[in-house]
Write a structure and sequence with these properties.
Elements (H helix, E strand, L loop, with lengths): L2 E4 L13 E4 L10 H8 L11 H20 L10 E2 L3 E2 L3 E8 L3 E2 L5 E2 L3 E5 L6 E3 L3 E3 L26 E3 L5 E3 L6 E8 L5 E9 L7 E8 L3 E3 L5 E13 L11 E4 L15 E2 L2 E2 L35 E6 L18 H4 L7 E6 L2 H7 L8
């Protein structure tokens, strides 16, 4: 894909702050080889002052065309999902990034730059699957013995698989590589629940990094249970245009499916509320999307890229601090010793609800 960049100015002050890239694929098979042309124009025998402005423009134009040819053979706007770069270990902190995979593409195949972003962790009536979770109070670790630390005897009588405080798990790291304006999102008690950014421009065929600190200091795996990881599904909106609610080409929504419709990988059951004629009935290859709880008021267009594919912040069990019990067959010993045993370790997932996303994903730059 050859992308023609329409730039009204770096980080323009216009309200829209939208940047478009137009596909200009052409046949350049007969074009002059750029390095040969450049060598002729800027030969060592040619004084620098003899190279005219128009000649320099020719060199630049041919070089750009060659770069576009190389890009067209491999690039596509659908090459990567927005994701979280690293996983964190129970009780530890890391610096990592939201990785923006690509920009937006509208119905006319025009590519648009990401100019803003919103990120929300699941903190309001989240859905817990795969196991049980005990959450602590907003003021800190509400453990049983009151000493302010999570210990093996701090789990409630319900004996949950994991104890966690999701609020306060992330801290935004300032960076102007993509966005000029950034800030964190807080709940009513001042706990960090996400972050947002605006006034940016990320070329749509390139990846971008948004740095933040992830803390698992308030995550504790029950040493009597076999949970091996806690997967926190994060809602991320990569915003290309300020239209709200977003439509195809104005933003990508890397979040659980909260549309109220069933989405399957490749072919959804419904398209804009109508039966999808391209989807075979009872297709055994269908891979369902990740669904949240409830139906969103704003984020229901299943044709938007990313819906049903949230970013994931994974917290892995520290097997030194929280070793598996003997009942978790297959988790210890040599391969030979475990050959006849069944691995009973499992993942616990926290998914944001429609109520949470509707309330906290929009922000001042991007809302009704």
């Amino acid at each position: 894909m050859n992308l023609e960049f329409h730039d009204p100015g770096r980080h323009s002050g216009s309200r829209g702050n939208d940047f478009a890239y137009r596909d200009t694929r052409k046949d350049f098979s007969s074009a002059l080889e750029p390095t040969r042309l450049a060598s002729r124009i800027t030969s060592p025998l040619t004084p620098k002052r003899a190279v005219s402005m128009s000649t320099r423009k020719i060199v630049k134009t041919v070089a750009l065309c060659a770069g576009s040819l190389a890009l067209s053979s491999t690039a596509t706007l659908a090459f990567a999902h927005t994701s979280i770069a690293d996983q964190v270990t129970e009780g530890k902190n890391i610096y990592t990034n939201i990785v923006i995979g690509h920009g937006c593409e509208d119905a006319h195949e025009k590519a648009w730059a990401v100019t803003a972003q919103s990120v929300v962790l699941p903190t309001v009536n989240p859905v817990i699957t795969g196991g049980t979770v005990q959450t602590y109070t907003e003021t800190g670790l509400d453990n049983k013995d009151g000493d302010g630390t999570v210990e093996n005897d701090d789990f409630s009588v319900a004996d949950p698989d994991v104890a966690v405080t999701v609020k306060g798990m992330v801290d935004l790291v300032q960076s102007k590589d993509i966005f000029l304006r950034q800030d964190e999102k807080y709940d009513g008690n001042g706990n960090t629940i996400g972050f947002h950014a605006s006034n940016g421009k990320l070329q749509p065929n390139l990846r971008g990094l948004v740095p933040f600190r992830a803390s698992a200091s308030k995550v504790k795996f029950n040493p009597n249970k076999c949970a091996k990881s806690l997967k926190i599904l994060v809602a991320v909106a990569d915003i290309c245009k300020r239209n709200f609610p977003p439509q195809v080409g104005t933003g990508n929504l890397w979040m659980p499916n909260l549309s109220g419709e069933i989405i399957v990988k490749g072919q959804p059951d419904l398209v804009n509320g109508n039966p999808n004629p391209n989807r075979p009935a009872d297709d055994p290859n269908d891979i369902p999307s990740v669904d949240g709880a409830g139906t969103s008021t704003h984020f229901t267009n299943i044709d938007i890229d990313g819906l049903g594919a949230p970013a994931t912040l994974t917290v892995n069990r520290d097997t030194t601090a929280s070793p598996y019990p003997a009942s978790c067959d297959g988790s210890g010993g040599t391969a030979e010793e475990n050959s006849d045993e069944v691995d009973t370790r499992f993942d616990v997932t926290i998914t944001p609800s429609a109520e949470d996303v509707d309330a906290n994903l929009p922000f001042q730059f991007w809302r009704r």
